[in-house]
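Action item from last meeting closed. Structure (249 res):
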């Protein structure tokens, strides 16, 4: 915790008015011991959080913070653009709707709306879920570039959440291939007993999958006939979101 506090203290020294600082300036600004500041600053350089000019020996903010800020801004833009379509989708289906993004080997819910039924799936913003056994996760994983998909699958430990969970990586790859062909993903009680979901990918202007949307509900309501009906609504919603993001199919 102390190291984290010192890390933040050093980072906060950099402002728009003072984008470059020497080691001595950071020491004076923070009041921390010089060896401590040097050790932390050099570690930040190694991770591209700061950069260091080899001639002046001055530090400035690195590209990693720009990348992280861009991710944050993109997710905020995505939420604002997607929300009207998520709301429309919830009105059409009356079921719980999630918008998720990839983070590491998991999918994170960044927006959602709960079903209007008394028996419903709770929507938790910020909730993490596995990629390989959720519709919202598989919809992203299936459309990643092959090398990225392989890298993620290699890191996955396919834990069985229910008796229907795919726990074999070759079977998972076959499932992802089918999803890519159809454009829709399914969770038939693979992550939670009694819960079924259908998902679809969202693409940005470059054609890259950046998110997914899912419809979730109790298996007693998510019957094959209902799922078939919901497919058209879901496809329309994700196509509208993708188009608003600049995607041209």
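Sequence:
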């Amino acid at each position: 915790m102390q190291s984290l506090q010192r890390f933040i203290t050093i980072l906060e020294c950099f402002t728009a008015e003072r984008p470059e600082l020497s080691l001595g300036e950071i020491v004076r600004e923070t009041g921390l011991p010089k060896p401590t500041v040097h050790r932390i600053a050099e570690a930040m350089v190694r991770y591209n959080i700061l950069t260091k000019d080899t001639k002046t020996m001055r530090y400035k903010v690195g590209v990693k913070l720009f990348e992280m800020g861009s991710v944050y801004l993109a997710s905020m833009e995505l939420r604002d653009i997607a929300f009207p379509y998520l709301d429309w989708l919830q009105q059409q289906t009356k079921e719980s709707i999630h918008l998720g993004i990839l983070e590491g080997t998991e999918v994170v819910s960044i927006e959602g709306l709960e079903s209007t039924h008394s028996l419903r799936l709770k929507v938790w913003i910020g909730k993490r879920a596995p990629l390989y056994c959720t519709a919202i996760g598989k919809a992203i994983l299936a459309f990643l570039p092959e090398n990225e998909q392989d890298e993620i699958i290699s890191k996955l430990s396919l834990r069985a959440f229910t008796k229907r969970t795919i726990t074999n990586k070759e079977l998972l790859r076959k499932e992802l291939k089918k999803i890519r062909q159809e454009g829709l993903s399914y969770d038939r009680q693979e992550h939670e007993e009694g819960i079924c979901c259908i998902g679809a990918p969202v693409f940005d202007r470059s054609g890259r999958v950046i998110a997914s949307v899912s419809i979730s509900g109790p298996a007693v309501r998510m019957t094959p006939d209902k799922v078939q009906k919901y497919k058209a609504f879901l496809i329309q919603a994700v196509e509208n979101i993708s188009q608003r993001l600049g995607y041209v199919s």
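Note appended to the action item: The chain has a mean pLDDT of 91.
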